[in-house]
Amino acid sequence: MKTQDLIKQLSANARPVKPLAAPELRFVLWMAMALGVTLCCMFIMALIGVKFLGQSVDWVRRLSSPALWLPGALTLLMCASVIYFVFALSVPGKKTNWLGFTALALAVAWIVSITAPLFFRRLAPLDSGLLCVAEIVVLTLIPGIVLLRMLKRAAPLATRKIGALAILGSLALSAAGSLFLCGDEDPLHELVWHFLPVIILTISGLYAGRYLFSYVNTLKNNAPAQK
Amino acid sequence: MDPQRDLELASLLIKAQDGDKLAYERFLGEIARILRMYLRKRLRDGDQVEDVVQETLMTVHRVRQTYQPGRPVGPWLYAICESRRIDFLRKVQRIQAREVPWEDEFIDFWVSSDEGAPEDADERIDAVQAALANLPEKQKRIIQMLKMEELSVKEVAAKIGVSESAVKVTAFRGYEAIRKQFKS
Asked: Taking CB atoms and an 8 Å cutoff, what residues of chain A touch B69?
C-alpha cells in the first residue's frame, strides 16, 4: 500500500479521542486503588483465617516487627517506583532515565533486605509456603487487571519491559501485604515463598508482555478510547 | 525539530484528537515527510524507510491519545519512530537468520564442483546451456532473463506479467531441475 493511501485511510477512520491523563495522575489513582483493594483483601483473608482456620494473630507484634516492616516498607517503595516508571514508559517521549535508576536502586535495596538476613540470622527448616504464594497471586489479581487495562489505553511500545515491570510492580504490592498476613519472620521462608515467586513471575512477564501488548502494533479492533 | 514546526504539528494533532479529519490528514502527511528524512540517515534500504514510515503512522494512529496537549510533538513522535525502527530491524534479522537468500541458491549451484557439473568454467557454461534447453519454456525463459540478460526480478516480473514471488519460485525450480540433471 502506498503511504498516501494509508494516510487517507487512517484519516478517514479517525474518531475523536480523549487525551490520556498525565502518568503522574494515573500512578496516584492506581496506587490509591491498589492499596485500598489490597488492604480490604488482607482484612478479609485475616478474618477467614481467624474465623474458619482458628488462627490467632498478634497484629501489634507483627506490625512492629522490624523483620517484617523493613522488607515490607522497601517492597512497597519499590512497587511505587516501578509502577510510576511503567506509567511513564507507556507515554512515548517521556524522559524516564532517573525513574529507571530509582526503581533499580530500590529493587536492589529490596533484594538486599531479603537476602542479607540469610547470612546473619539463624534459619529455621523450610516449611511449605504455598499458601503464601496463593495469597500473593490472589492479592495481585484486581490491581494487576486494572493496571493492565490502564496500560493498554496508553502506548506500551516496549512490550517486554513493560510487561515484566507491570507484573513486578503489582506483585511487589501483594508480596508486601502477604508478609504481614503470613507473619513468618524466617529469612529463608521470606526468600523462597515471598521473594522467589515474584522474581519468577516477573521473568514470565518478559514473554507475557509481548503477547499482552502486541495489539499496539496492529490496527484491527484496536481503536483508541473514544470521547 | 524546529520549535515553530513543532507548534504547528501540535496544533494539528490537538485538532485531530478532537476529530478533525482534515487536520489529521495534514498532520500525517507532514510527519511522513519528517520521518522519511529522519529514517534515511538510519536505514540503508529505501524500501525499509517506507515500511518503517508506514508502521510509525499506524502506531501514531493507534496511540494518538497519548500525546499530551502542551508538550512538544517531536520527542513523542521520534520515540514512536525509534521503537518501530528497532522492531522492524529485529524482524528483518529474524527472517534473515531463518532464510537463505534465494540468489545464493543459484550461485552455490553455479560454482559448486560436487554437483556433477564440469570443473572447467566454459564447459560448465555449455553444460548449463544444454540443461537449460531441457527445461520447460517458462523456467528457461525466466533463467535466461535473470542470468543472461541480467534483468532484475522486478523487471522480469513486469515483462512476463507475473508477481516477483512467482519469478523467484519458477527460477528456483529451474535451478533445482538443472542440478538434478547434473547429478544424474
From this structure: 19
